[in-house]
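Quick one - inputs below.
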Amino acid sequence: MEQIEVFKALSNKTRLQILAWLKEPEKFFPDYKFANEPECLGVCVGHIQQKAGLTQSTVSEYLAILQRAGLVTATRSGQWTYYKRNEETFALLSNLIASDL
Amino acid sequence: MEQIEVFKALSNKTRLQILAWLKEPEKFFPDYKFANEPECLGVCVGHIQQKAGLTQSTVSEYLAILQRAGLVTATRSGQWTYYKRNEETFALLSNLIASDL
DNA sequence: AATATATATCGACTTTTTCCGATATTCCTA
DNA sequence: TAGGAATATCGGAAAAAGTCGATATATATT
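Output:
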């Protein structure tokens, strides 16, 4: 985990918002299915984009930033890319701040 | 605590370094005294600046950023301003990431 | 193969951040 | 009260990030 990359990724309102949405997809994405099923892949870019109200390119870029920071994972399935939170990184970050930072 | 302000403050190599130095002042600042005494005020700007190898103005500004984020506190005493970590904010941030983010 | 849909990447422009030198402020001491 | 030392603030140049529209790529459908 690249500390600084993670902090930079978290230094943006929209990206924080996206992470919050992805924490409770069934709450924030009406069309979201399979939230509680193991095969759940996440939320696709289009839905996130609509909710964010920014252009497709911007949201795609933001998701790439979050992914490079390890905060989300991406799964391509058909024409869609599904993003979901990577809770492991959040846990690592929390511990890092509590003890190493 | 302003989330984004904190994350922005942590998105810089030098500032992270300063926080690390302030965690163990007796280790990183040879001239540092009173480390384990209650009246310890912190480390003054000049020492931090020397170690950082950046200009006085830049380091002063960085310390102000850390202070506004609540990550350090400043105490003026005579012509010196002493900075030290505000562990409370680190703890809050760690918890926030663990549960709310 | 042609077209449509979802996403990613590119190029450009604007805003923010980084970092500097110069100057101002504050406080100490002669 | 004048000068010196420590720190803060200001103004600017360069680099990075934010954001867009246009285009490219990948996949699905006909």
